[in-house]
Amino acid sequence: MAIITISREMGSGGIPIAQQVAEVLGYKLIDGETLKEVAGEYGLSPEALEQADEKPPAFVAERDEQIAVDLHQIELIILERALKGNVIIYGRGGQDLLQRASNLFRVRIIAPFEERAERWAEREWLDPDYARILVRKSDQQRAGFIKYYFDRDWDNPLEYDLIINTSRLSEESAVKLICEGVKDKNLIEKKNQSKKILTDLILRKKVEIAILSEESIEGYHVELEAADGVITLAGHVHDNKELKTVLAIANQIKGVTKVVNKVKIINYRTYPSDH
């Protein structure tokens, strides 16, 4: 069956719906708890996961460079589990990360702001005014995360295949709608095509992480694509030394069979005057 991505607003009741869908379909749910369980295997500390997971950048250069690496690690976790099939990706920009995969069933779960704040206050035993602050902050962070990293409007209904308003529909109805929708023949027929796309995305992500992790280069200027083991590098670096480093890194990643170099050398750094 198709890969399910679930975008949700805080307090909309998304997690119990996702958990029930996973149980009914026999799917693996990839959510915050899943990431915590495996983060250590990818070199992510709890603090690093907290700072990068569904957060917009801090706009502090050194900190954002590390957050970028950590975010790519989170994305690698998601991609590798998506390749196994039968998964629900809960948040984390899943539908954007996997947008090239053609067998995505993109679900959005919403509810009115005041109702969500009230639910959150009841669930967490919070003062209602404080719950409103938390829900509003969560909305802003997640919308900012999607806009900055994927350049998409979080609230655009055309980006989803199914939108469920839990103010109007019960959890039971929501679960039924998702379980039926994911069986659509148009999604099932494209499953094999998506496996190749996911394999390419995983290889690309591994090379991106390796390049961004190299402190001697400004890796965020390098662009790359992956197709059948071939990595195509573009963008720019500052000198021949950086170029050799980037090419060496790409060639060392397991699964890379060839590296095509389209990187430009643009030396625009400024140096202190001798005078």
Keywords:
single chain; 275 residues; alpha/beta; Rossmann fold; Histidine-containing Protein, Chain: A; 2 domains; 4-stranded mixed sheet; 11 helices; 9 strands; 16% strand
CATH homologous superfamily assignment of the largest domain: P-loop containing nucleotide triphosphate hydrolases
Give me the CATH fold name of the largest domain.
Answer: Rossmann fold
Oligomer: single chain
Neighbour order of strands in the largest sheet: 2-3-1-4-5
How many runs of DSSP E, i.e. beta strands? 9
Gross morphology is: globular
Query: How far apart lie the N and C ends?
Result: 68 Å
Instruction: Outline the low-pLDDT stretches.
Output: none
Computed over alpha carbons, the radius of gyration is: 21 Å
Which sequence of SSEs, written as H and E, runs from N to C? Answer: EHEHHHEHEHHEHHHEEHEE
**CATH class category name of the largest domain:** Alpha Beta
Please give the share of residues in helix: 40-55%
Q: How would you describe this structure to a colleague?
A:
The structure is a single chain. The protein has 275 residues and is an alpha/beta fold. The chain contains eleven helices and nine strands. The protein has two domains: 3-182, Rossmann fold (3-Layer(aba) Sandwich), CATH 3.40.50; 195-265, Histidine-containing Protein, Chain: A, CATH 3.30.1340. A five-stranded parallel beta sheet has the order 2-3-1-4-5, sandwiched between helices. Strands 6, 7, 8 and 9 form a four-stranded mixed beta sheet that branches. Strand 7 (230-237), helix 11 (240-252) and strand 8 form a beta-alpha-beta unit. It starts with a strand and ends in a 10-residue tail after the last strand.
